[in-house]
């Protein structure tokens, strides 16, 4: 089928485009500049504009847009940037999907939707939490509604921490561990919903081919672990000790509200929708996942 991908330059987007093409799909990439390659079409989300003909013949649109959430304090300006970079592109694409009767929209979101859930097991039926990240995800997902109202199948990717050699979480952690500065965050009891990048890509392909998958889909591995367990697994994978502890007060001093909503938040998220719809994970444990990506 013809698939249009927005946000194709990121870690997941780059891999996904390659995987779609290996599967035989015709992929067009939306870029925020003048198009310069045969597979590119330009668009301007803040202006609500998409190049004429960009969605002609499209059978699926995949939207991965969103500015990165880094471990820095969330100023009001940063919050607005994070929100706009997600909601605006989603509104534009969901409206375009509705107007052109495109049958499938796959849209990014995050497990931040659930907020801090402690040790309670979380699946796609769990209601949203509180705080900025949760509210941002709610608005992000709500922006897909025009497509759903028009009858499109809408799948929302509530993604956890993606483990990859190419970037994401492991970059800064690998550096810390290389200097023997690895360690747990706070008491380490908070759950970290992780997923191997190959499983994430394969899950998107599975969604495309599975008509029963719609609505929120937790893009997380089947066996979430606590921060302490993750730290020990990374220590084993890198062959480096992890003797240190980043105290909660220090994290809150450095990160402000992002400490409690991000680094210290506990989310025992399971991928119920994927499992109920026949998806098989290649990497089922954090040791398997980290063993394949931790070392360069």
Automatic annotation (TrEMBL):
What InterPro entries does the record tag this protein with? DUF1731, Epimerase_deHydtase, NAD(P)-bd_dom_sf, SDR39U1
Which stretches make up the NAD-dependent epimerase/dehydratase domain? 3-210
Give the record's family classification: Belongs to the NAD(P)-dependent epimerase/dehydratase family. SDR39U1 subfamily.
Organism equals Kibdelosporangium aridum
Q: Where is the DUF1731 domain?
A: 246-291
Identification of the protein by name = TIGR01777 family protein
According to the entry, what is the taxonomic lineage of the organism? Bacteria, Bacillati, Actinomycetota, Actinomycetes, Pseudonocardiales
